[in-house]
Amino acid sequence: MIRKRIFFIAILIILIVFSVFVFDQIKVGHDNGSNNATEITHEIIGNDSTGSVEVIRNLGNPDGQKMAYVVGVHPLENDTHKTFLKIFKSMNNLNCCYDVYIINVSEDFSKYGELLPDDQPGRQTGQDLALKYVYPEIVNGSYKFVADIHAHGGAYGEHNTFVFSPVEGSSGESYGRIVSNNTQNISYYDPQFTTSGPYLTIPLNEKGIPAIYFEENSFISQSIKDAHMLELIKSIDSLKIS
How do the domains of the chain map onto residue ranges? Predict the structure, then answer.
């Protein structure tokens, strides 16, 4: 009788241990699958004496087409960069998967309007960091579309809020016009000159990756900036890139 009781207890213990082991293995496998699909990561991809470049990966829908935003190429335009990060982080139910590249220039800078454009500290440095660190990441990253966030001080007359691609006839221009057409307050306008084009958006378009600028007037109210940025993000998120 005692032997039978010991035998049944031993069998019960074995079954319990086996069940716990199987459950743990299933749980670990499920957790790893979820993390691999949805985990948001922060990574420093470049760091030298002039500044650093950070990327936040896997924002939005991990199963959607892959896109990228870039902020910080011109550090004095940081009010628009901050607006983008604030609005984008508040978005839910996005269709696409996004990586956000943030360029941090080590030079001191203030905000747009306090210095003339030619005197902007860090302007060339930000462009160099974009070409050195962001460009190769995007070229090798299977991205379908890229938007570079900028600001201006009213230099474009009536064109306050607009998108454009610096390569005429490119896929970037085609999708930029679609982005504009799907909004109420963002026009498509092609300035005659841009300093940062050769450092990011031009070579990306030449590689077949659609890349556009977004430009916002730094001197309009923050509430309007917020509304325009929301329009931009929603319009880009609705794109179907072939």
Answer: 1-39, 40-237
